[in-house]
Specification:
Elements (H helix, E strand, L loop, with lengths): L1 E5 L10 H7 L6 E2 L2 E3 L6 E4 L5 H19 L13
Antiparallel strand pairs: 1-4, 2-3, 3-4
Length: 83
Amino acid sequence: IKTCGSTFKNISKDKKAWKLIKESGCVNFKEGDASISEKHCNFFVNNGNAKSSDIENLIKKVKKKVHDTTGVNLELEIKIIGE
């Protein structure tokens, strides 16, 4: 499976990124050929033909939903390089 690893940092011991994503209802989010892993929702998956823009748009979509639902602003653990 093609993944960029753990996408967001944990906020604290009590506020794990995966839990915030799951509780915000993001587990089935997709963008192009990118989706959230069925095994661990803090891992975003390239299902074969995802573009970097698909991954970045999925990140933005999840960040917004988590913020709107919980008030928490998730911080990236991965680094986005390039334009």
